[in-house]
Specification:
Blueprint (H helix, E strand, L loop, with lengths): L5 E8 L9 E8 L4 E5 L6 H8 L7 E6 L2 E2 L5 H5 L2 E4 L11 H6 L14 H13 L15 H14 L4 E5 L7 H18 L2 E5 L3 H7 L2 E6 L2 E6 L1 H4 L2 H8 L3 E5 L5 E5 L12
Helix pairs in contact: 4-5
Length: 271
């Protein structure tokens, strides 16, 4: 896609010569103002695709680019000013106030001995407002709920003032309400601020409701890509997940899947 914010082109990754490819000829792209969700079973290569896109693993072949530039040409601080990342898991390693945790997102703008400027402090305040965590700024991060901590991590990424967001399982371990709230927040930012968002999610029904497009992966390859209604078919999902799946439709045409129960085996007669 010309002018893509985030793009993999026929990318392959092999972490060890003795192992099969973790990514095999994978192409995907995300435009500004768009949310793309990477979905698929465990071990499909979703997180490896994110790492390849960000230059954290070497490509065996293919190309990874961010805003039209090959990933290898980016300085890491410069990249952090363009792409905000929320990783799959993170636990605080030392006591921090919420405001301090979010201010860490300004590090790409600071020199080695620089002190935060008024512009940095303003960026932190804006990020807190965008992620709806202003009321938490004086709390210690270890006192936060799972949903609050995820919003704080998103605010830290937004403090980088990026043009794109990359989120790896951002709703893992969250309950239904907090999962929906986080997706609503991300999509609002995408629509209102023209951000590009690439989200890895195991929750296909939620991804179908929020993402503009889905990329379904299995065994390191792209199985299907397109609008949720094109990708989430019963035949494809049953094949990829190795389990019978049915698909129903919401009133707006969004597909929703549910796994079938396999027939119970009859009990054997016992004397």
């Amino acid at each position: 896609m010309s002018g893509a914010a985030l793009q993999l082109e026929r990318a392959s990754v092999r972490l060890s010569p003795a192992l099969p490819r973790q990514l095999d000829d994978v192409s995907l792209s995300v435009a500004e103002g768009e949310c793309l969700a990477l979905v698929g079973p465990n071990g499909a290569g979703k997180t490896t695709a994110l790492r390849a896109l960000l230059g954290l693993v070497a490509l065996e072949s293919g190309r990874a680019s961010v805003f039209g530039r090959e990933i290898g040409s980016w300085d890491r601080s410069e990249l952090a000013r363009s792409v905000g990342v929320v990783s799959q898991r993170e636990e605080p390693v030392f006591p921090l106030l919420v405001a301090e945790a979010i201010a860490m997102g300004r590090y790409p703008y600071l020199g080695t001995w620089s002190q935060p400027s008024a512009a940095d402090r303003d960026a932190v305040q804006r990020a807190m407002a965008r992620a709806d965590v202003v009321s938490l700024e004086h709390r210690w991060v270890e006192t936060l709920s799972g949903g609050e901590w995820q919003r704080v991590r998103l605010a830290r990424a937004l403090a980088q003032e990026p043009r794109a967001l990359v989120l790896d399982e951002p709703t893992a371990s969250l309950d239904l309400r907090h999962e929906m709230e986080l997706f609503e927040l991300v999509i609002d930012l995408v629509r209102r601020e023209n951000l590009a968002a690439l989200v890895v999610s195991h929750h296909l029904n939620v991804a179908a409701r929020f993402a503009d497009r889905l990329v379904l992966m299995s065994a390191g390859r792209v199985v299907s890509a397109g609008a949720p209604s094109q990708v989430l078919t019963a035949e494809t999902l049953s094949s990829v997940f190795g389990w019978p799946v049915s698909v129903s439709w919401l009133s707006d045409g969004t597909p929703q899947l549910y796994p079938e129960r396999k027939p119970l085996k009859p009990l054997s007669n016992q004397e």
